Amino acid sequence: MVENSQGYLEDLEEKFNHNGMRLNTFVKEGEPHAEITKLADDLDASLIVMGTHGRKGLSRLLMGS
């Protein structure tokens, strides 16, 4: 799953960067809150943007947003 995610994100990053936009992607394993805050600290990030998978209704409630 990690390899598939990394491959997908590398392709996406290449498309964005090729079109004059800057996109950095990361795939981490562990407790989400800990990995997100650690990466934000490591990068000295002031903004974190996270997307969803288009879930709606009950699946969004159960899986998060």
What does this entry look like structurally?
- This protein is 55% helix and 0% strand.
- The chain has helices spanning 2-18, 32-43, 57-63.
- The longest helix has 17 residues, at 2-18.
- The two termini are 20 Å apart.
- The mean pLDDT is 81.
* Inertia-based shape: globular
Number of helices: 3
Derived from helix and strand composition plus strand pairing, the structural class reads mainly alpha
Mean pLDDT: 81
Tell me the quaternary state.
single chain
| H/E topology pattern | HHH
The main sheet comes to:
none
Percent strand: under 5%
**Estimated helix fraction:** 55-70%
- The number of distinct β-strands equals 0
Computed over alpha carbons, the radius of gyration is 14 Å
Which spans of ≥5 residues are poorly predicted at pLDDT below 50?
A: none
Distance between the termini: 20 Å
Characteristics of this structure?
65 residues, 3 helices
Sum this structure up briefly.
The protein contains three helices and no strands. It is mainly alpha-helical. The mean pLDDT is 81.
